[in-house]
Design brief:
- By secondary structure, the chain is an alpha/beta fold.
- It has one domain (about 5-105): Glutaredoxin (3-Layer(aba) Sandwich).
- About 40% of the residues lie in helices and about 25% in strands.
- It has four helices and five strands, in the order βαβαβαββα.
- The chain has helices at about 10-15, 35-50, 65-70, 95-114, and strands at about 5, 25-30, 55-60, 80-85, 85-90.
- The chain has a five-stranded mixed β-sheet with strand order 1-3-2-4-5, with helices on both faces.
- A hairpin with a 2-residue loop joins β4 and β5 (about 85-90).
- α2 (about 35-50) packs across α4 (about 95-114).
Amino acid sequence: MSVVDISERSFEPLVLDRSTVMPVVVDFWAPWCAPCLALTPLLEAATAALSGEVVLGKVDIDLCPALWKRYEVRTVPAVKAFRNREVVAEFTGAQTPDAVRRFFEELVAGHARA
């Protein structure tokens, strides 16, 4: 369960509740967004590299308008990291593989220190 599709109904248990145990990265994306589609494999690779230490949740903004409004997503891709039910880090737009890897590694290291 390291990569999961998130709906408005499943957000609370799969993201907020889960973030009290381990970091959860949420990718707010859309199927019509080319940068989103380019970012997906980088997010999935970073998640796989940290197997068991982080969960990646994918939120299709077209299917979950309440979530993108709640988290003030103004552009996609928007990536938000949750720890203890709160957003602790985020970025928007396309990123390099190294930037994505560092984002995940810093998140997991911060969780270990917390």
